[in-house]
Amino acid sequence: MLLIPCPYCGKRDEHEFTYAREGHIARPTNGAELSDADWAQYLFMRKNPKGVHYERWMHAKGCRRYFNVARDTVTHEIYAVYEMGQPKPEIDRGNGR
Amino acid sequence: MKQHYSIFTLARNAASYHEKWTEAWRSPDPKPEYDAVIVGGGGHGLATAYYLAKEHGLTNIAVLEKGWLGGGNTGRNTTIVRSNYLWDESAHLYEHALKLWEGLSQDLNYNVMFSQRGLLSTAHTIHDMQTLRRRVYAIQLNGIDSEILTREQVAAYCPILDCSPTARYPVFGASLQRRGGVARHDAVAWGYARGADARGVDIIQNCEVTGFDIEGGKVVGLQTTRGAIRAKKVGVVVAGHCGVLAGMAGFRLPIESHPLQAMVSEPIKPVLDCVVMSGQVHVYVSQSDKGELVFGAGIDSFNSYSQIGSPPVVENMLNALIELFPMFSRLRFLRQWGGIVDTCPDASPIIGKTPVENLFFNCGWGTGGFKATPGSGHVFAHTIATGEPHKLAVPFALERFTTGYLIDEHGAAGVAH
């Protein structure tokens, strides 16, 4: 069971949250110029790291706001929680592949 | 020459107090070079090696396994085998596997305890029943056995299932694949390992791949914890860790790794002689030959490589199980575990070439790879041996995420993902 520190509500059990998968994937602004392969990269290809994962969660049973989490996919340790739109924090541990 | 397993071998070894059984496979040191290296010593990887040796005459092969044989998802699944898939591409692939299952114990001279005890998929709403009918008709058009049972027929087929009109999840009917069932998962890995080894394949355990040697866009070897190995061709079949290996080779996959949990109850006398799955309330259950009820449900939502799932998933699964089978409410858990599954956006596998020449991937089986083990190995062996995908594997190429030709088996496979 994850204990997730919502930046707006504080620490809550995992079952209050919805997972919104990998974060920091910006929609291309030059869509008309992109090839199908470029679109595949944006739509489908994922980092899926063994180590630090920058991901989004939504506090579905609380404030219903999205936020970013830097979490280790092996130990489940949460290194950082930060608001949407903020840049990725540097995490020393893990490989972040 | 390997010892042939039979009633006579058993009797002979019984006479010597079972102290003279020979090893089922060797544990050789890796050679410096192989014609082909398979990464991943689970069922799919070992089956690939077996069919490469048996059907394509490639015997200078190694299977590299970072842990022990079948210690990953092969030993962690709920052992269900079926081929009741909606889309033609999947139906053909899984039916190919099911046909191989039907002759597997004979082919391997190893009892994989394949038991075609029937597989029931229940429907709990009127809409569930409509999609179930559509699926059954599509499966029948593909020449695969599948039939619709009414509520009364379901109650007769599986009496312990709560089919009363007042049930929390009323049963409207079900689809039944009589050729579906279960197999002994460990035996599948061991049987393929023994068969491959007998044909000269080197099975190397405790050997983790740490990198690929790629020259001019072509794979020429691997770096491992037991030294460098040169290889003309490399096939990667590592389930949850496929993204890690793709990263080593310099490309990404449309795959995310999640824990999938399963558990068994204490063993009890036979009460359930078929497999029951419910996609709607999401649980699947069968009874093992030891008497334990084996059940599982969906993945944990978040990415993880930890082989540990979260309690809320277990709670949801048990809620569904107890409502469907009220008599199970007094059973105790024996154990619970997780495996890391490689989920694909369209819930279908990726089999074939990669951006690196002579490097082939077989991954993305997600929550349902065990049933496909023989078929997966068979088509992947063809793909590695010829360099071109087997005709059943063509639709499952990585390129489908560029062309948009997805094989959307979410729900269509009869189980929620």
In short:
Chain A is mainly beta and 97 residues long. In chain A, 8% of the residues lie in helices and 34% in strands.
Topology readout:
The complex is a heterodimer of chains A (97) and B (417).
Chain A: E1 3-6, E2 10-13, E3 18-22, H1 36-43, E4 52-58, E5 66-72, E6 78-83
Chain B: H1 7-15, E1 33-39, H2 43-56, E2 61-64, E3 80-81, H3 88-102, H4 104-108, E4 119-123, H5 126-141, E5 147-150, H6 151-157, E6 173-177, E7 181-182, H7 185-198, E8 202-204, E9 209-215, E10 218-224, E11 227-236, H8 242-249, E12 256-265, E13 275-278, E14 283-287, E15 293-299, H9 311-324, E16 333-343, E17 350-353, E18 359-363, H10 373-386, H11 400-403
Parallel strand pairs in B: 1-2, 1-11, 2-8, 4-13, 11-18
Antiparallel strand pairs in B: 3-7, 4-6, 5-6, 9-10, 10-11, 12-15, 12-16, 13-14, 14-15, 17-18
How many β strands of chain A by DSSP? Answer: 6
Oligomerization state = heterodimer
Residues in helices of chain B, as a percent range? 25-40%
Element-level helix/strand string of chain A: EEEHEEE
Low-confidence stretches of chain A: none
Radius of gyration of chain A: 15 Å
Describe the global form of chain A.
Answer: globular
Helix and strand composition category of chain A: mainly beta
The overall average pLDDT of chain B, rounded, is 95
- Shape field of chain B: globular
Q: What fraction, in percent, of the residue positions of chain A are helical?
A: under 10%
| Helix segment tally of chain A | 1
Low-pLDDT runs of 5+ residues of chain B are: none
Beta-strand portion of chain B reads 15-25%
